[in-house]
């Protein structure tokens, strides 16, 4: 869960800042293609992590009760 919410979200923030820097430095000389930009949406929001945790626990309990 830490990786899903923390590390990947931090990497997404860094990618957003790097893309902004590239936009500023390369305004006139070179236009960036969409493929050259860094991917910014990498992690899950805290709400998505909470839903994933709830879903995982629910499926586990259901599986144990069926077996």
From TrEMBL:
It comes from the Bacteria. Pfam families: DUF212. This is Uncharacterized protein. The lineage of its organism: Bacteria, Bacillati, Cyanobacteriota, Cyanophyceae, Oscillatoriophycideae.
